[in-house]
Amino acid sequence: MQIFKNIKSLQYFLAEERQKKRSVGLVPTMGALHEGHLKLLNQSQKENDITVCSIYVNPAQFNNTDDLKKYPRDLDHDQFLLEKQACDVLFSPSDKEMYPEGNLNGIKLGFGKLEQVLEGKFRPGHFSGVGIILSKLFHIVNSDKAYFGQKDLQQCSVVRKLIEELFFSTQLVIVPTVRENNGLAMSSRNTRLSEKGKDLAANLYHAITKVKNLIEEGEKIEVARQAGISTLKEQPKIRQEYFEVIDKRDFTTAADITPKSEIAVCVAAFVEEVRLIDNVLVFS
Question: Which residues are catalytic?
Answer without folding.
Answer: 37
